[in-house]
Amino acid sequence: MVIAIGFEGSANKLGIGIIQDGVVLSNPRHTYITPPGEGFLPRDTAKHHREHALDILQAALQEAKITPEQIDVVCYTKGPGMGAPLISTAVVARTVAQLWKKPIVAVNHCIGHIEMGRLITGAVNPTVLYVSGGNTQVISYSEKRYRIFGETIDIAVGNCLDRFARVLKLSNDPSPGYNIEQLAKKGEKFLELPYAVKGMDVSFSGLLSFIEERAPVLIKKGEYTPADLCMSLQETIFAMLVEITERAMAHCCSQEVLIVGGVGCNKHLQDMMRKMAEERDAVLYATDERFCIDNGAMIAQAGLEMFKCGMTSPLDDTFCTQRYRTDEVLVKWRD
Amino acid sequence: MAAKVIANELFPDSTITLALFRNVENVKEIRQCVMNGTFEAAILKTSMIVDPFQVIVAANKAVHQNKVGKMMTKNVHSEILFNLSPSKNISDSFRKFGAGDTDQSVFIAVIDDKTGQTLQAIQNTVKGQQVDVDEVKQLSDLNNIKKIYKLTDAELSWSPLDALVTRIAAKDIMTI
Amino acid sequence: MTDNNIADLNIPFPSKTEADIAYGTLSVDQEPKRGGVKRSLRVEDCILKVHFEAKEIRTLRVSVNSFMDYLLLVLQTIQKFGPPS
Amino acid sequence: MERVLIKQGAEGKLYSSEFYGKPCIVKERFTKSYRHPALDKSLTTQRMKAEARALLRCRMSGIECPALYMVDIESRCIIMERVLNSVTVREYTRTLQEKDDAKNLLSLAKQIGEVLGRLHSNNIIHGDLTTSNMLIKGYGENSRIILIDFGLSYFDSVAEDKGVDLYVLERAFLSTHPNTEALFQVILDTYKDNNKTGAEDVMKKLEEIRMRGRKRTMVG
């Protein structure tokens, strides 16, 4: 009976989750929301995390109805992500680990998403599409590594959506991507956008600058409504994501696809991926906002798996890193 | 000597009839028959053909263009001629790929000659000897073909036929 | 005497254990390489001693301020979830 | 002629059949229901045209590839030569690795480098280079590489695009054939010999793209 606590703060969400052998006991989270038209900066995000960390930790313990003594291992996000926010979160994790005299596990953020997705959905060996504000990767497990088969060559899909949301001055609450999704539902007229798939990689920066330049003019001239543009943007970038995922599935002969990461909550992306999967007699697994979006439980889950095969870190090794490739981690816990 | 009648791969109800005549004395008259509509067929210049398959690919494409309403010339038989030629210019294509009055042989292609009537009419008209269509390989002028299709030596080293059919299939896509 | 700008902090803790915990937490993350700031920590009895050296005053100030933010967080964490058992 | 489904790849369905007596492959890019109809139509047409153009351009540049028999935009089908007794370079590499046949692995790497060098010196960008998109005919010395799957190809002389082409192959190659870094270097070295004028810039770009991958700050 192992209980793990996970600290996540690599981007604008501060989450602390507690897991007991695959059961999520608690998973409170607080999101740093910036005014419409603005992105979140590292310094302000870190300040937000420092201000909320202890309250969220308190809530996590209370909701889970456990005391620090019962916790077996403290897990934290080592990277990738924003420097100051990562460190602010790690500071709390390191301090409580010493206070409670518990071992620490340094977790790769992307692997947290994958392990949480597998736990929640029961997917055995899925091809994983990890899509968020900072990441776009198609990942498949092979020979002790989560290998990156395809990824973005420039900006992440979430970043592309967020930056277009700023052009339209959409609200960042709960997230710019969510508001694009709602607006897109009313879109009708399709605008063809640059579609850039190169092998199993994708590129969004050309598409983003294309639509950033044209949107104001097209809207002013009344040719396209913001809803049309949101719909066209989603249709094009999601089609690119589904295509590289299908290529990876074909390449690895995989019959399971799992979407993780904040953008994975997008119902339209899920529908498109499901249609692709069904055409290949494959199965789509998707998680809802509780686990798709950055949260502490996912770090606890990955950390639990690592802890069970002895992958703890000495305290002085628990530094944070902004760049931490998914395929750098030895996945000892899978056969 | 039977001509070759082939069912169209994509349109089962359509056929392609191929026939080769050598030692022909009256090419002019045959072309006249097509001009005045006595019978409808593609009268092709044998020196420009390396293999019956080259004509089949051109003919198959002509039938397809006709079905989807994308023909560049007025009928399926003139379309075969046009498809064979790498040039976008119709009259230039006819000149280079249509049999010339002074030619000694002709390669005939007929679409949908259901009853064999057209072939019969052609056989009655031609003053020459009908031979197996594969004999056209002996009549190909490879140098001229190489010049007109702009074949590279690399292509020739593998297979002139593949080079030609690839051009024929891709012609309308290459130059837009 | 180096021409660097120097700052030394002596932070007293109620016990040596708490000073060690603060040291354990705050000594892990290094100063950014390009920042041009050198920082060293050590614990003497129940005092955490922090030494900063920087070529420019500005980078020194940024480093010290940032360190203080994290230090405050450690103190709050100990206060709320300590004292050490 | 009856069509037998051999594979449902990401691109579409692949059938084996005969085209007026010639063994052929029919590649049907059927409608992808997940795509917006307008996007699907435009992508499919673009890719069929790209494939046709590349098959001709490669052939003219001395790069072996299947002959093209028919392009049927309306029914989303391309019919091309079925290359007989050939295997994918992916399977061939695996067999050689299993047999630990270093000599032939080396000559294979050189052959791949040669083909890619000629491809890029003729400004043809493949767009989806993987060992599954290369066939090999024959064995050892007298084997020949045949490139296929040109749906994402285009023509461009820009070093960056050639760099991305090689980067895509590198990532696919190393993830499909673990610990073959040295072999891939042979491919790159031979590539340089066969793309003399452009190689230097392309290698610089490839290194930049690799760094971009490692350097990319992945926030969140």
UniProtKB/TrEMBL annotation, chain A:
Domain Gcp-like: 29-300
Pfam families, per database record: TsaD (PF00814)
Gene3D superfamilies, alphabetized: 3.30.420.40
Protein's UniProt keywords contain 4Fe-4S: no
Gene Ontology BP terms: tRNA threonylcarbamoyladenosine modification
EC annotation from Swiss-Prot or TrEMBL: 2.3.1.234
Binding-site residues, a divalent metal cation: 109, 113, 130, 294
Main subcellular localisation: cytoplasm
EC class (word): transferase
Keyword terms of this UniProt record: Acyltransferase, Cytoplasm, Metal-binding, Nucleus, Transferase, tRNA processing
Needed cofactors: a divalent metal cation
Recorded catalytic activity of this chain's protein: L-threonylcarbamoyladenylate + adenosine(37) in tRNA = N(6)-L-threonylcarbamoyladenosine(37) in tRNA + AMP + H(+)
Signal peptide boundaries: none
Cofactor binding: number and manner: Binds 1 divalent metal cation per subunit.
Family: Belongs to the KAE1 / TsaD family.
Protein name: N(6)-L-threonylcarbamoyladenine synthase
From TrEMBL, chain B:
Protein name as it appears in the record: Uncharacterized protein
InterPro entries linked to this entry: CGI121/TPRKB, CGI121/TPRKB_sf
GO CC term, one of those recorded: nucleus
Places the protein is found: Nucleus
Keyword annotations from UniProtKB, A to Z: Nucleus, tRNA processing
Assigned protein family: Belongs to the CGI121/TPRKB family.
GO biological process, one term: tRNA threonylcarbamoyladenosine modification
Keyword Nucleus appears in the UniProt entry: yes
From TrEMBL, chain C:
One Pfam short name: Pcc1
Keywords from the UniProt entry: Cytoplasm, Nucleus, tRNA processing
Subcellular location: Cytoplasm; Nucleus
Function: Component of the EKC/KEOPS complex that is required for the formation of a threonylcarbamoyl group on adenosine at position 37 (t(6)A37) in tRNAs that read codons beginning with adenine. The complex is probably involved in the transfer of the threonylcarbamoyl moiety of threonylcarbamoyl-AMP (TC-AMP) to the N6 group of A37. LAGE3 functions as a dimerization module for the complex.
Annotated GO biological process: tRNA processing; tRNA threonylcarbamoyladenosine metabolic process
Stored Gene3D superfamilies: Alpha-D-phosphohexomutase, C-terminal domain (3.30.310.50)
Cellular component terms (Gene Ontology): cytoplasm; EKC/KEOPS complex; nucleus
Protein name: L antigen family member 3
Main location: cytoplasm
Family: Belongs to the CTAG/PCC1 family.
From TrEMBL, chain D:
Enzyme Commission (EC) number: 2.7.11.1
Enzyme class at the top of the EC tree: transferase
SMART domains hit by this protein: S_TKc (SM00220)
Database matches in Pfam families: Kdo (PF06293)
Entry's Gene Ontology BP terms: tRNA processing; tRNA threonylcarbamoyladenosine metabolic process
Residue span, Protein kinase domain: 1-220
Domain of life: Eukaryota
GO cellular component: cytosol; EKC/KEOPS complex; nucleus
Keywords of this entry: ATP-binding, Hydrolase, Kinase, Nucleotide-binding, Nucleus, Phosphoprotein, Serine/threonine-protein kinase, Transferase, tRNA processing
Location(s), subcellular: Nucleus
Catalytic activity: L-seryl-[protein] + ATP = O-phospho-L-seryl-[protein] + ADP + H(+); L-threonyl-[protein] + ATP = O-phospho-L-threonyl-[protein] + ADP + H(+)
NCBIfam families (alphabetical): arch_bud32
Function: Component of the EKC/KEOPS complex that is required for the formation of a threonylcarbamoyl group on adenosine at position 37 (t(6)A37) in tRNAs that read codons beginning with adenine. The complex is probably involved in the transfer of the threonylcarbamoyl moiety of threonylcarbamoyl-AMP (TC-AMP) to the N6 group of A37. TP53RK has ATPase activity in the context of the EKC/KEOPS complex and likely plays a supporting role to the catalytic subunit OSGEP. Atypical protein kinase that phosphorylates 'Ser-15' of p53/TP53 protein and may therefore participate in its activation.
UniProt protein name: non-specific serine/threonine protein kinase
